[in-house]
Write a structure and sequence with these properties.
Alpha-Beta Plaits, Glucose Oxidase, domain 1, 4 domains, Rossmann fold, 7-stranded mixed beta sheet, alpha/beta, 7-stranded parallel beta sheet
């Protein structure tokens, strides 16, 4: 019997109400931060208190983790009402919802000068006492990158473990790979049980990303390494003597903050000296950001945390991991390339890149077609799955446009349709940036300009033809490095007064270890298995800095995380030997500090920086006070309920002793007058006695900036001595949105201690 309109409306209203109730009662993961010092006397240990707090708001809520090291509290599955009730309980600092993070997805030692400078680093066992903890997709322990030949016993301070699973036993660890653990409770609570037919519920890396990042940071040297013959040579990590501990926090459906925080908790307690996280999420206030919270306590315990900036460039303010106690790393290129040429029937050829290693195309030219003309789909030009018509593609080279689906998947789509080869053309979103891929068919990726020229030929010729010629591995490419277009940029959305990224490191076409579970494309249909793979992303630049930080910790065990970061930043370079500034591939112009921070890392110089900008926990607490955080918000970051701001003290973000300067001028409505902004900094001598003198320059379109540094010299009499200075920036009012950039350098004739300057008018 047909339902009347009133009945339909009533039924719809009931259904909507039911859905609303269901959503309100749906359990989600929340991370509850507790004030440890406020535990009631009736409890003997904090686990009891956490459990009782949870039971007070729910008889059925599931506790996932109890945190004791980088934060105090727990994560649990709660309804929204239960989460709100928990937030009102005594001793609770904050209740934050789960956040899903995503992965920021050789020749590097030579490019960075490590091959000639190993003798500068200590030959003692101090380097092998350093442990790099890598939070990622796990590890493939059988790779030669984890060979422990020449390593002594596992350091006595190490408290970690080799967690077993169905396909991972304790013998997978050794004196190089000294720890391996996995964290999945948060993931499984949200996504359901892990399907072990698709990924291992163990530390084993079925993705490849974790093996790549950990071997980049601290892999042992492997001779005759390559990807299918490309990039042949010795593959090694940045710190070959450091130990590795793998913490698997990322799964097929993402990386969940409750798991990440649990892994950071374990890694710091285990005894890691450096944590490497090639992952990120959207920017958030620090008291809501699990990685920032975990990193704060890690810093407090002397552990440096290195994170990727993100792959959302070249747009402005696309950074993640912006907390000043995190070292944030962008990506640049190497001086190595893998050319592959699209040769056209009109005699022209265009240079692209490729890692294809199979049977090449014939020497003769074959028909060339545009994907948009041989499709049954509105997005057929993108070579999406099922979009190409086999009868129109068979035996031909297909020109596909970049976008939406993976580059390697486009090639597979062409191959499945019977295509003989693929030319992949960048669009405006990618410009001239070229990233090489191990395609499943003969293919090359070309820049936007080349793509447009090829299309012009294709559309104007009645019988267009082409072939692809592969050029192997080319080294000595100039200019290099250049800032990768995908590398996320500043300004910093969370705290605009802190300049991020901190620096850049190699992140394009990086050769490192790979999983045995999937081929180099990562596609399920790829049958190839390789020991090494070449991939790109700030995920790759982050472990470079993590490994270099381990090198510096081995050489200078007494240095704080801030001192290590300062050494890496103030010795970074921003120009080529010719004097021209490092280019940004996205614009073809010189990169700015919003693109590359302090510059490109220079390890040999970082070993002996002369001076460093050091920071303590109290300095960071003052920074939080300058942000006008409440005592509860500060405690959620620091774990200390007694961290309160002095109402009689003036706090300023610009007072943070950071190795860079972000100067904000107010735009005056009347358009006149000069504004001055003063920053104070303190330098610590970590070298020989010496006298340092400053030079400072800055340029702004449409205006001039005057920079005054006082005093005019700093004379250090001994190591460890600290001396302070002020720098005053003066400029007239300029329109809102105006930016300028510069550099402040202290030098004693031997050392160059450089800081980037960014100027904005708001």
């Amino acid at each position: 019997m047909a339902m009347g309109w009133m009945s339909v409306l009533y039924f719809a209203a009931v259904l909507a109400a039911a859905c609303h109730v269901s959503a309100a009662e749906e359990r989600k993961t929340y991370i509850v931060h507790m004030a440890k010092s406020q535990m009631p006397a009736e409890f003997t240990e904090h686990g009891e208190w956490y459990g009782a707090s949870l039971r007070s708001v729910s008889d059925s809520a599931e506790l996932l983790y109890a945190y004791e090291t980088v934060t105090h509290g727990f994560s649990a599955r709660l309804t929204l009402a239960e989460a709100r009730a928990m937030a009102r309980r005594g001793g609770v600092l904050s209740v934050n919802p789960e956040v899903v993070y995503e992965l920021h997805t050789t020749r590097t030692p030579e490019f960075l000068g490590l091959d000639k400078q190993d003798g500068l680093f200590p030959a003692s066992n101090s380097g092998s006492d350093v442990v790099v903890g890598v939070l990622d997709t796990g590890v493939w322990p059988e790779r030669k990158s984890y060979d422990d030949t020449g390593f002594g016993p596992v350091p006595a301070m190490w408290k970690g473990t080799c967690q077993t699973g169905r396909d991972f036993n304790s013998s997978a660890c050794n004196r190089k790979l000294i720890g391996a653990r996995f964290f999945s409770r948060g993931y499984e609570a949200s996504m359901g049980p892990i399907d072990e037919s698709k990924e291992s519920k163990s530390p084993r890396d079925n993705d490849g990303h974790g093996t790549h990042t950990s071997s980049t940071a601290a892999g042992s040297p492997v001779e005759d390494a390559s990807l299918l013959g490309y990039a042949a040579g010795i593959a090694r990590g940045m710190s070959v003597r450091a130990r590795v501990a793998a913490y698997k926090v990322c799964w097929v459906g993402g990386c969940f903050s409750s798991d990440i925080l649990a892994a950071m908790d374990a890694a710091v307690a285990d005894g890691c000296h450096v944590l490497s996280l090639s992952l990120g999420g959207s920017s958030a206030d620090y008291f809501r950001d699990s990685v920032a919270i975990g990193a704060f306590s890690a810093m407090e315990r002397g552990v440096l945390v290195s994170c990727s900036a993100g792959n959302a460039g070249p747009g402005a303010s696309t950074l993640s991991n912006t907390a000043p106690w995190i070292t944030t790393v962008g990506a640049g290129t190497l001086d190595r390339d893998f050319p592959a040429y699209a040769v056209l029937g009109n005699g022209r050829n265009f240079s692209g890149v490729s890692l294809y290693s199979g049977k090449p195309l014939p020497n003769t030219l074959i028909p060339l077609v545009y994907a948009g003309n041989v499709t049954n789909s509105t997005n057929g030009n993108l070579c999406m799955p099922g979009s190409l018509v086999p009868e129109k593609v068979a035996g031909k080279v297909v020109l596909c446009d970049r976008g939406i689906n993976a580059r390697v998947q486009k090639g597979y789509v062409v191959k499945e349709a019977g295509g003989a080869g693929m030319v992949l053309a960048n669009t405006a979103a990618n410009g001239e940036e070229l990233v090489a891929d191990a395609h499943l068919l003969p293919a090359t990726g070309v820049g936007q300009k080349a793509g447009e020229a090829i299309k012009a030929y294709l559309f104007s010729n009645s019988n267009p033809t082409a072939t692809i010629v592969f050029g192997g591995t080319q080294v000595g490419v100039r200019p290099s490095p250049v800032v990768a277009a995908f590398s996320s940029r500043g300004p910093n959305l969370v705290t605009p007064e802190i300049l991020k990224p901190d620096l850049i490191a190699p992140g394009v076409n990086i050769l490192a270890g790979w999983t045995g579970a999937v081929g180099p494309t990562g596609l399920a249909v790829d049958p190839r298995r390789v020991e090494f793979n070449i991939i790109s992303g700030t995920s790759m630049s982050c472990p470079h800095v993590s490994g270099l930080a381990a090198l510096l910790k081995g050489a200078h065990p007494e240095w704080s995380p801030a001192a290590v970061r300062s050494a890496l930043m103030t010795t970074a370079y921003t120009a080529y030997p010719s004097g021209e500034g490092i280019l940004d591939v996205a614009t073809g112009k010189a990169a700015t500090p919003f693109d590359l921070g302090a510059g490109h890392v220079d390890p040999p110089r970082a070993l002996d920086p002369g001076l460093v900008y050091d920071l303590t926990t109290d300095d960071y607490v003052d920074f939080l006070c300058a942000l006008n955080y409440t005592s509860l918000q500060i405690a959620a970051v620091t774990k200390r309920a007694n961290d309160t701001c002095d109402g009689k003290k003036t706090y300023a973000v610009s007072a943070l002793n950071y190795p860079s300067f972000m100067v904000a001028f107010d735009t005056m409505k009347d358009g006149g007058g000069v504004t001055s902004v003063t920053h104070k900094r303190t330098l610590t001598n970590v070298g020989d006695p010496g006298t340092y003198k400053p030079t400072a320059t800055a340029t702004v379109d449409g205006g001039a900036v005057t920079i005054k540094v006082e005093p005019e010299e700093l004379s250090f009499k001994k190591g460890g001595e600290q001396l302070s200075y002020t720098v005053t920036f003066s400029a007239r009012s300029l329109p809102s949105g105006t930016t300028g950039f510069g550099r402040l350098v202290w030098s004693d004739g031997k050392h160059v201690v450089a800081s980037p300057i960014a100027l904005t008018w708001t």
